Amino acid sequence: MFHRESGYYKTTYASDSALYPLPIARFAVAGFAVLFFVVAPLLVSSYYLTILNLVGIAIVGALGLNILVGLTGQISIGHAAFMSVGAYTAANLATRFDLPFWITLPAGGLMAAAIGIIVGFPSVRIKGLYLAISTLAAQFIIDWFIVHTPAISGGFQASIQVPRPSVFGIVLDTQRELYMFILVTVVIAIVIALNIARSRIGRAFIAIRDQDIAAEILGIDVRRYKLMAFAISSFYAGVTGVLYTYYSGVANNEFFPLVVSIDYLAMVIIGGMGSVLGAIFGATFVTLLPIAIDLVMTSVGPYLIDDAGALSGIKSHMRLILFGGLIMFFLVVEPEGLNRLWLNIRSYFRVWPFSY
Amino acid sequence: MKRILATIAVAGGLAAMTAAQAGEIVIGQMTDRTGPTANVGNPLADGAQDYIDLINSQGGVGGHTIRMLEVDNQYKVPPAVEGYQRFKSEGAVLVGLYGTPITQALTADLQKDKIPGTSPGFGTAASADGAAFPYLFPAASSYWSQAGAAVEYAKQQMGGLKGKKIAYLFYDNPAGREGLPVLRKLSGLEGFTLNEFPVPAPGIEMDNQARDIARRFRADFVISHLFGRAPSVQINALKRAGFSLDKVVSFVWGASEADVAAAGGFEAAEGYAGLQFAGVGDDFQVRRDIKAMYKAQGKDVRESMASTVFYNRGLLIAALHVEALRNAVAANGGKADVTGTQVRDGFHQIKDFSLGGLIPPLNLGGGDHEGGGWTRVFKVTKDGFAPASDWFKGYRDVVFGMIKEETAKKN
Question: Does A249 contact B42 at a Cβ distance shorter than 8 Å?
């Protein structure tokens, strides 16, 4: 109905390699750009912008992990530690040298990428569950190292207060200003992720994921590309950590416990591995669902249970049950994630009203 | 994307509903009901809720009812940030924080939005400096003050510290390590030998440290700072190593009914002492009032009321909130539309408010938002916790000097 690709002929190399070759896709992207850059900051209240901010930060992290897990077929349970590396790098640069965010943000990413390459070394020899355990070790080693090095962690409390980012002398400290800051970062992250996936690097990643021996025979330097996947993925994680730091105004290792690594893995798996849109869906779903359940239960709950005291306890536990249940439901309905669900809907409407 | 659109669509509708109604004061309270510290969060939030219900049943504050919103942040930062903004959008003039990382993540926002927050038992020691953190009220004794108090208690127990050996047994995370600077400084000042015994997470195996403390270091006293299951493990490990529990004092998160029960009951843990920032036990008028309120409604009291250590801390938090609101409403000419700044000034007026002995003689005015760093030692006896000291503060001048140094460094 709205996504017909017939009738568009590619007559130049540029049009063939365009990110969005179809006009309808370009219109859709333009529409979303207007929605998120103009409509949302002008019309949405500060509270809902907070939620968008949290979703945005999660998207950056999920995009990065998706490159490693979804595209390259490696696994990392140490991503929260890479976020921590990024956060403390940026915090130290911002407080000790008064560097602006446009230096600290990539610097945090680069430092995380450097650590990520070291942590990724075992991936050259081992894979699957064995790799999972070695990255799990990294999570604890990095955490321990940061906490026990006052030069990095800034003292016994392991927290560093960081001034909020500023652009042209304007300090970005309201939700609306931070929204624009995070949104721009998210857009850059998405564009880079989209292009990695369809470039030489991305193709190599996919070849390694599907069959690493075959990839090696094809002439792909498996070692180099595996470490590159770790580096890119950790870079994204580092940037996520920097975003958390600027967003809350403090770098703290307690923001990034093991659970956070698991949360991000969940985002990638629920969203659909190996696709950028899937990572976005996953990050949105995992961040939004508990909030949505909580809001619904807060408004509906009093009609079901008249004991306000008991309700708050029940509500918290119901949130966990519903959250877990819905994740199972969506994965049973579509094991390949929300992205596949979206593709199914799209291909249905593509031929609508005919069935094929 | 659809989800976001739907959210945006309801945004307008909800925003219209959120305006505070007349005669109602909105406050926010965070807790952890389902996260890693749920054992504390549940009784604490129940206590806070019951106290607010009690005040409302008695006519509220100056005739205005208090509506307490609760957010379960699961000890995670993103849900807490979302919860704080929800409080703000509903017009909360006061926020009870829960969790050290959460306190740190929201400190800047509280100051910017001019909404006072309380963080009893959480946050950094430096936040006691009201000049540097005008909208943050730790209100309860920080880890630094607890370290001072623990050394003071050890001094009283041993009749002096010169040449003594004190072991600091702590959970090896930032919160556990926070006591170290004060202990190191006091060891220099008082001339005792300090030896540090870190316990790695999750802290369920401590026999090595206990043997080290009892046989090699031959400590005269143990100051311990552990969380979760670790305090109960410590009690048994020290007993096995032949170390008398009479020579142990724990920080505030290591001496609750649950810890004693996990260690084998009150008889098994007899002599173990813990610092407390709120009164422990059932013998308080406010607890009797809450029971009477439940009885009048024909309901059973909550099970969590039996966990007096944490439940009473919830009462302390809510009581301080109500007092601050009371002062703010009075300053506002009896009207309910108080501002965050008025509530902050309300906190400053809190002085010698004891709630029948449940709350120490805090004085939140005068730039010390910790109110003096009061603690009280309760010792395990066969029949439950018994006070082993009056409310006291240890080395307050030294500790507050260090707090001032810390905030000066940051600015």
Answer: no
Tens digits of per-residue pLDDT, A179-198? 999 999 999 999 999 999 99
Q: Are strands B117-118 and B95-96 parallel, antiparallel or unpaired?
A: parallel
Tens digits of residue pLDDT in B263-319 = 999 999 999 999 999 999 999 999 999 999 999 998 888 889 999 999 999 999 999
CATH class, domain A36-351, is mainly alpha
DSSP for residue B389? S
Burial class (CB in 10 A: 0-12, 13-18, 19+), A16: exposed
The answer, yes or no, to whether residue B9 has pLDDT greater than 70, is no
Query: What's this model's pTM, rounded to 2 decimal places?
Result: 0.89
Q: What contacts A53, CB < 8 A, 6 or more positions away?
A: A175, A178, A179, A182, A247
SS3 annotation, B291-350: HHHHHHCCCCCCHHHHCHHHHHHHHHHHHHHHHHHHHHHHHCCCCCCCCHHHHHHHHHCC
pLDDT tens sequence across A53-103? 999 999 999 999 999 999 999 999 999 999 999 999 999 999 999 999 999
Percentage helix, strand, coil for chain B under 3-state DSSP, each rounded to 5: 45, 15, 35
Residue B33, chain A, CB below 8 Å: the answer is: yes
Taking an 8 Å cut-off on Cβ atoms, the answer to whether B8 and A40 are in contact is yes
- Domain coordinates in residue numbering, chain A: 36-351
Between chains, do B181 and A156 touch, taking CB under 8 Å as contact? yes
Res A3: pLDDT: 56
CATH number (3.30.70.270, 3.30.10.20, 3.40.50.2300, 3.40.50.170) of B143-276+375-410 reads: 3.40.50.2300
Query: Are B2-141+281-348 and B143-276+375-410 the same fold in CATH?
Result: yes
- Smallest CA–CA distance, residue B94 to chain A, in Å, is 17
Judged by a CB distance cut-off of 8 A, whether residue B196 touches chain A is no
ipTM of the complex: 0.88
Q: Report how far residue A130's alpha carbon sits from residue B245's, in angstroms, rounded to the nearest whole number.
A: 44
Classified as helix, coil or strand, B223 is strand
Among the CATH numbers 1.10.340.30, 2.60.40.1180, 2.20.28.10, 3.40.50.2300, which is that of B2-141+281-348?
3.40.50.2300
Instruction: Report yes or no: A253 at the B interface, CB cutoff 8 Å.
Output: yes
Domain residue ranges of chain B, discontinuous segments joined by +: 2-141+281-348, 143-276+375-410
| Binary contact (B72, A316; C-beta < 8 A) | yes
Q: Does the distance separating the beta carbons of A249 and B107 come in below 8 Å?
A: yes
Rounded CA-CA distance A154/A257 in Å is 18
Q: Does residue A157 belong to the interface with chain B, where contact is any CB pair within 8 Å?
A: yes
- Which helix (H) or strand (E) segment holds residue A269: the answer is helix A258-271
Find, in chain B, the residue whose alpha carbon is nearest to that of A251.
Answer: B105
Q: How confident is the model at residue A112 (pLDDT cuts 50, 70, 90)?
A: very high
